[in-house]
Amino acid sequence: MAETDQAPPPSDQLAAMNLTDTVEKHAFSDRVLIRSIVGRPDGGAGLAGQRVRAGGWVKTGREQGKGTFAFLELNDGSCPANLQVIVDTGLAVLSKLVATGTCVVVDGILKVPPEGTRQKIELRVEKVVSVGEVDPAKYPIPKTKLTLEFLRDHLHLRARTNTIAAIARIRNALAFATHSFFQEHNFLYVHTPILTTSDCEGAGEMFQVTTLISESEKLEKELIKNPPPSEVDMEAARQVVSERGEAVKQLKAAKASKSEITASVAELNKAKENLSKLEERSKLKPGIPKKDGKIDYTQDFFARQAFLTVSGQLQVETYACAVSNVYTFGPTFRAEHSHTSRHLAEFWMVEPEIAFADLQDDMNCAEAYVKYMCNWLLDKCLDDMQFMAKSYDKGCIDRLRMVASIPFVRISYTEAVELLEEAVKGGKKFENEVKWGIDLASEHERYLTEVKFQKPVIVYNYPKGIKAFYMRLNDDLKTVAAMDVLVPKVGELIGGSQREERYEVIRERILEVGLPLEPYEWYLDLRRYGTVKHCGFGLGFERMILFATGIENIRDVIPFPRYPGRADL
């Protein structure tokens, strides 16, 4: 065989060749990521003999050999695995290195440890570059197992724990997967506003944004320091204006020089300006401005009531009705006094909108997106998922594989209610009554996904009375073209619909649910001018993380949870 015709080496040989590559430094740091050492298929053994600089925080440390050396388990957050580091006593004061939470940067040589040890590679330190010390008596995150509830009281440090760091990497992977999925399918990423003057859900549980309170407090302080003019002050200022006006008249009557008259007019104008300022100050009143007994929002920053958004959907629809396929991905807010393990005051939503598409397309997109995210975690985050399976939910990886590989069940709302009624007849007890017209409770959703079908379920065509005004009215005039994706563990993961594109119908629906037309005139314009069939959905991002990881409380899957009574950091 000619040299150019040689067969390529087998894949296992290729892998072995790759494993001898030099470990690369981080592009923007003078160290190597621990993941690039221990995250290799051989656990880093192929890197033996190489000199590297590593940095991280000590997970566990102990002095050995009667204080002649120390073992450190070092982690820099790049992966769940630690790098074992061995430091001789001549290089540093070992007692300052071994405390959990200590930050160290070290130079050393990678070596294969003795046979029978768990590690495939360890770092023999040649130089301790820097140490960020910790007082073990005061450090609130010791190496003992801590509850997730306890960690919520230490938000600024909890990312140093294995669990919260793993969740952070999984969250990052799902965000990356989200953008990858929609970009691969030619969706445009649109940034919708955080501040809004419309209520997408019509629920009214919104955080209000106003400067009236701070402006009122500022004014009260200013009026104490510099009180408004009295009536005597006002009368005196009016008298000055009158006198200055009279002086100008007399100069003109006496045919005085132009310069004299000009100077006198300037004095008059100055007096008028002073009076005007006093009149303005006299109108200042402490407290929030009111008109006809109600708060006067025309005096507010936006000259009208404003809120933190509960959804970017309505705004992103304006782009769907112009550039076809779009999505928004950002924080949303709900002022709901709920203390459940499924509610946050601030949470993230992924909201795509598809033009020239109907409910069937919407369901297809939602299913494909969920499957894509599951596959992404299995392909790119398996080590973190294995940690979650070992520590929290042994079935989480199997659940991802199941959802990624099988078609979702699709049933109408009416069929879903019939199945639930059959279950009740068969002896199943639900806390919430089952009848046509109810909004399915979490227990109903989980029964369908975990007991009845044991797979994801898409329920569609809901009663119009329990859904938002913008969902397309079906021909039966009782239901709307809405759909929810239900998954095991969390119940509803996605809510979506075909949007109502008929002007007269949506106008009637807005009035029917008791909303004023004026704030939605712009939304109606999308139907007045070049209306188009379109659909979309919203995925609760934290719910997706709950589903993936098996974590029970939503407060543990967002970096800085906000809920009633708590908004730390």
UniProtKB/TrEMBL annotation:
UniProt keyword annotations, A-Z: Aminoacyl-tRNA synthetase, ATP-binding, Ligase, Nucleotide-binding, Protein biosynthesis
Annotated SUPFAM superfamilies: Class II aaRS and biotin synthetases (SSF55681), Nucleic acid-binding proteins (SSF50249), S15/NS1 RNA-binding domain (SSF47060)
SMART domains: WHEP-TRS
EC number in record: 6.1.1.22
BP-aspect Gene Ontology terms: asparaginyl-tRNA aminoacylation
Keyword Amino-acid biosynthesis attributed: no
Domain of life: Eukaryota
Catalysed reactions, as listed in the record: tRNA(Asn) + L-asparagine + ATP = L-asparaginyl-tRNA(Asn) + AMP + diphosphate + H(+)
Coiled coil stretches, renumbered: none
Pfam families linked to this entry: tRNA-synt_2, tRNA_anti-codon
Molecular function via GO: asparagine-tRNA ligase activity; ATP binding; nucleic acid binding
Entry similarity comment: Belongs to the class-II aminoacyl-tRNA synthetase family.
Protein name: asparagine--tRNA ligase
